[in-house]
Recover the amino acids of this structure.
């Protein structure tokens, strides 16, 4: 009898990281995935934060079969079991629809935002001949609505298509 033993999902949250998150870390979690290309295929799911020194703080990771609704839902369910829901929780990610859907299902009171790094990469990919990187950076870091509006107007002056793309991505995020 030829029997293959394997797992479909694997989750790990290191106790000291989880306790540190609960006691000392801002409740902003960046999530993303990486595709495994070696002998063992699949997708690694990653949840990180930033500590008080602005350094990457590992929170949890998991391995699943692929980046899809079921895998992200599983990952966020395990993450919730590890950290609870709590107040003022924010998730940041690329614009993958499975992530947004899973966050709203598993963490209904959390805020969801778009990672400006990924959004800037998308601008470079979709608008190769338009350079608004510096203006986009300034807009993404603006704390005042007047400053943000100024930079968005500057983006529209350079390219109306880029401005519309950013608005469709959700400037509130």
């Amino acid at each position: 009898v030829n029997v293959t033993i394997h797992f479909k999902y694997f989750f790990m949250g290191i106790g000291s990281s989880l306790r540190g998150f609960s006691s000392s870390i801002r409740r902003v979690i960046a999530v993303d995935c990486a595709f495994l290309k070696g002998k063992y295929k699949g997708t690694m799911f990653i949840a990180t934060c930033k500590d008080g020194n602005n350094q990457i703080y590992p929170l949890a990771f998991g391995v699943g079969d692929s980046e899809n609704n079921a895998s992200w839902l599983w990952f966020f369910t395990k993450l919730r079991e590890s950290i609870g829901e709590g107040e003022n929780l924010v998730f940041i990610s690329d614009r993958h629809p499975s992530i947004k859907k899973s966050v709203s299902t598993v963490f209904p009171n959390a805020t969801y935002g778009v990672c400006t790094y990924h959004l800037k990469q998308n601008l470079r990919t979709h608008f190769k001949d338009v350079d608004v990187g510096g203006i986009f950076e300034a807009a993404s870091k603006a704390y005042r609505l007047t400053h943000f509006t100024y930079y968005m107007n500057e983006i529209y002056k350079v390219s109306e298509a880029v401005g519309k793309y950013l608005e469709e991505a959700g400037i509130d995020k």
Q: What stands out?
A: The chain has seven helices and six strands. The helical segments are 15-24, 69-83, 97-106, 116-126, 133-140, 145-158, 160-170. The chain has a mean pLDDT of 91.
